[in-house]
Description:
By secondary structure, the chain is α/β, with parallel strands linked by helices. The chain is built from 6 helices and 14 strands.
Amino acid sequence: xxxxxxxxxxxxxxxxxxxxxxxxxxxxxxxxxxxxxxxxxxxxxxxxxxxxxxxxxxxxxxxxxxxxxxxxxxxxxxxxxxxxxxxxxxxxxxxxxxxxxxxxxxxxxxxxxxxxxxxxxxxxxxxxxxxxxxxxxxxxxxxxxxxxxxxxxxxxxxxxxxxxxxxxxxxxxxxxxxxxxxxxxxxxxxxxxxxxxxxxxxxx
Length: 204
Ligand SMILES: [Zn+2]
Ligand SMILES: [Zn+2]
């Protein structure tokens, strides 16, 4: 499995492009700059296979409409975030309002698998930063794509619509149970690992 991480847009939200031998790409959190994502796919001759949104915030979803003009794929989002994601409230210039995609898949509970293009990931629901936030655990690869739930040395804020500190605290307990060697791609900033966050992150 290959992964490319790009910081996109004014908020530099990390977008992960993930693919395997089948050359079918997952795009996780296309937050802005669709042309950069599409140019990467073209360079590597990858087909856009599926989009997964870790949570509803505009800095993680705003390139979605442009990607769907290239190819209509399934778009995964937890149902608890759906009412926020495509609301006009979920935007701030220069980020546009995101239209609801036609192939929106709202299923996905804790422990469910998402499988596409020869790659699979297990969902760990981690509400708190948003009501429907989740992390993607690529178990074979020891990789966690954490969205804004966990950062290197910090955690996601809980003062935005639908956020809850108590809920986030419970979610972090789940992440602490993962193997120390699990690499963590964070929603912003550098990558980390569960082991080093357990050592130095005061919230863990
Ligand atoms: Zn963010
Ligand atoms: Zn966020």
